[in-house]
Structure of Capsule synthesis protein CapA domain-containing protein:
Amino acid sequence: MKTSHFFLCLFAVTLVVLGYFEYRQQKVLNEQKPIPIITSLANSLLPIPKEKIKPEPITIMAVGDIMLGRSVNTKLQKQADFTFPFQKINSFFKNTDVVLANLESPFGENCPVTDTGMVFCADKNSVQGLKLLGVTHANLANNHINNQAKNGIELTNNILLQNKISSVGLSTGSGIIVSQIKNTKIAFLGLNDVPPYPKEINNLSKELLLKQLELATKSADIVIVSFHWGNEYQQKSKRQQELARLAVDNGADLIIGHHPHWAQEIEKYKDVPIFYSLGNFVFDQMWSKETRQGLVVKVVFENDKVSTYSALPIFINKDYQPETKTTP
């Protein structure tokens, strides 16, 4: 009987001891923290995906030739108001991200007040009109930009920069301009195909065009090419079409043309709009209906592609002001 009591007591003590050790082991396990290296390894194997920022819509407007010398300058001096040429149309450029223009006349010192001649000189104060219009980018790759020699090109570029307007088409550096618009990078190329060919600007060749397009497509989300090309007072040429399509084939998203002083055809090639010539915008060529007509282009980009585009006809009135109508 004593023996059985002994074994019962021993069994009870054993249960208590085992229970205590089980309790201690569980408590230790509960108090242990995860090993940091395991968490880090898990995160590296299963990275948390980052949400891609969706590009905001970009609205771009473009106009044709702006010449602020000769008879236009005479008018500005008489008016004593350098915003005068743009006062009947600037309201159409509100809420626009980019305004691109071809500046056909360089700024100069002591510009002569004259209504004749083919050497253009614009008063430095006439940049006020470009600002009123909201110009953000001015193409300088054209056949009149050296009318005031190298100093005139430098002066023009400096005045534009002081007024937060980017010069497009100068041959310095890579020859292209990349601007951050909202959360989108836009490359602007300006190329001249009309003599004389001043070395300070990009003069058009297929080799240069392809080189700049290669750089632009690597550097930007949208590529805009501004061509100064074609034949005056005519519709588009075969060369214009070949160059435009070459540009699109190599990454251009929008083609803007000028120089003929006529509004030329609009073409869509591989979903890219090609505006062969926007005609005149501010000019003193009053002798024909065609030279007084032009186009204002509006292009909207969504997700880095053209979503909509339109062309608004304008007519230059007797005071050299573009208006949104097709007859004087």
